[in-house]
From TrEMBL:
Molecular function GO terms recorded: aldehyde dehydrogenase (NAD+) activity
Gene3D superfamilies, per database record: Aldehyde Dehydrogenase, Chain A, domain 1 (3.40.605.10), Aldehyde Dehydrogenase, Chain A, domain 2 (3.40.309.10)
Keywords: NAD, Oxidoreductase
Record SUPFAM superfamilies: ALDH-like
Record's keyword annotation contains NAD: yes
Organism the protein comes from: Sphingomonas changbaiensis NBRC 104936
GO CC annotation terms, alphabetical: cytoplasm
Record-stated family: Belongs to the aldehyde dehydrogenase family.
Coiled coil, from the record: none
Xref: PROSITE patterns: ALDEHYDE_DEHYDR_CYS, ALDEHYDE_DEHYDR_GLU
Identification of the protein by name: Aldehyde dehydrogenase
Length: 471
């Protein structure tokens, strides 16, 4: 596949279409929605094959329905988002008839590099903003979900011309070539380590980049928290997709006098959600053996360094003898900073639980680490909640639950520092994939002369300078 030729074909088609009509943008969003709805069951089957088993309902909710909702939201709002914005002018320009506005125009061709953990939703969600802004798109799928990637390539031609949308598959070599293309914008979702390489590749072309990375998203359990509710919601978020979520709660910070209650609550919640795991269609497997081995190594490392590793296995099932990659929840008590589970993003059903005394200890612990993609606080103490929000920095926050801020279409979704740069979703996504073009209209009157900008400089110029230099 000639990636450069595909890019050039899309750019040529877009240049011929400019200005991109709103009707054409809505039509592309319509076709993307139909592509998801028409092939929903096939995508769920492909995802389950790629994972070794993935819950159909999870795939429907998190990949198919989530994509459709995002695309429908863009379709509903694109007319409003695309309106020019009038901007005020400083005195006396507005009074003299000058006018200023911002017009949003398509950037061109957007490259999307999608990950394996939600390979449908994280390909299609950026597409909502890309199409709403009037762009064309090339999407690189993950080699770790080959059946899903193949399905995208099989069906896309039924709904889109390659000059509008194309899917590209392949391994690391294709990924490197893709990220080095001179896109008009590039969005990558994946690991921080890979994000650094993407940024380097894009820099050679001065391609603007949105990086949606990960990191260790902390969950702070306040003393005022409803522990039954908090532990159930943490368990739901941690065990969804077997913890293979960039926003999964990565570690818990709990008051030292509530650790036993929190761990008990997690165990009870996990057992209620998944009484059995090996034969449970609702529970998803770890994506492949390499990641399964990686997670087991984290547990071995924690045990070797003095951690108390608790296996939450409600059905007393034989995971070791199952010849598969499903894993139960493992809770790691007494984690230390030198453990891999406290250094790497876990991306699996392993949850360290660390004690704190005063809330500022928990805040300081978070602040000594890289800025996370998500931060979660449970509690009903308004002053404490405000202190956590004011004294920490993260990509986003959910209060009294986990992950949910990503589902609010009009909240920007993005990281900060090692957890990412830039944001998308809703109007913020539309703006990310648009060029905000400044338009200034000068009246007939000689503004330069009135403002003292017109040589030869004299008294008018001196008065203008003196006026502006007053404090």
């Amino acid at each position: 596949m000639d990636l450069t030729a595909l890019l050039q074909a899309q750019r040529t088609a877009l240049d011929a279409e400019r200005p991109v009509p709103l009707a054409a943008r809505r039509d592309r969003l319509d076709r993307a929605i139909r592509m998801m709805i028409d092939n929903a069951e096939r995508f769920c089957s492909a995802l389950s094959e790629d994972f070794g088993h993935r819950s159909r309902e999870l795939s429907m909710l998190a990949d198919i329905v989530a994509s459709v909702r995002t695309l429908k939201h863009a379709r509903k709002n694109v007319d409003r988002w695309a309106r020019p914005e009038k901007r005020p002018l400083q005195f006396p320009l507005g009074l003299l008839g000058a006018r200023a506005a911002v017009e949003y125009q398509p950037k061109g061709v957007v490259g999307v590099i999608a990950p394996w953990n939600f390979p449908v939703q994280l390909a299609m969600a950026p597409l909502a903003g890309v199409f709403a802004a009037g762009n064309r798109a090339m999407i690189k799928t993950s080699e770790f979900t080959p059946r899903t990637a193949a399905l995208f390539e099989e069906i896309v031609g039924t709904y889109f011309d390659p000059a509008e949308l194309v899917f590209v598959s392949g391994g690391a070599e294709v990924g490197r070539a893709f990220s080095a293309l001179p896109f008009d914008h590039l969005i990558f979702t994946g690991a921080t380590s890979i994000g650094r390489h993407i940024l380097h590749a894009a820099a050679d072309n001065l391609t603007p980049v949105t990086l949606e990375l990960g990191g260790k998203s902390p969950t702070i359990i306040g003393r005022s928290a409803d522990l039954k509710q908090a532990t159930e919601r943490v368990a739901i978020g941690k065990l969804m997709n077997a913890g293979q979520i960039c926003l999964a709660p990565d570690y818990l910070l709990v008051p030292d006098d509530k650790e036993d209650a929190v761990i008990g609550g997690l165990r009870s919640a996990a057992a209620a959600l998944y009484p059995r795991m090996l034969g449970n269609a609702d529970y998803t497997a770890v994506v492949n053996e390499r990641h399964h081995v990686r997670l087991q190594a984290y547990l071995d490392d924690a045990r070797a360094k003095g951690g108390d590793v608790i296996e939450v296995n409600p059905g007393a099932e034989d995971f070791a003898g199952s010849n598969g990659t499903r894993m139960p929840l493992f809770i790691v008590r007494n984690p230390t900073d030198d453990m891999a589970v406290m250094q790497d993003e876990i991306f699996g059903p392993v949850l360290p639980v660390k004690r704190y005394g005063a809330i500022d200890e928990a805040i300081d612990f978070v602040n000594r680490r890289d800025r996370p993609l998500g931060l979660y606080y449970f509690g009903h103490d308004a002053a404490e909640e405000r202190r956590v929000l004011d004294r920490t920095i993260s990509g986003g926050v959910t209060v009294n639950d986990v992950i949910f801020h990503i589902s609010a279409e009009e909240l920007p979704f993005g990281g900060i520092g090692p957890s990412g740069m830039g944001a998308y979703h809703g109007f913020d996504g539309f703006k990310t994939f648009s060029h905000a073009r400044a338009i200034y209209r000068q009246p007939k009157i000689d503004i330069a002369k009135l403002a003292g900008f017109k040589p030869p400089y004299g008294a008018t110029t001196a008065k203008a300078i003196a006026r502006e230099l007053k404090a």
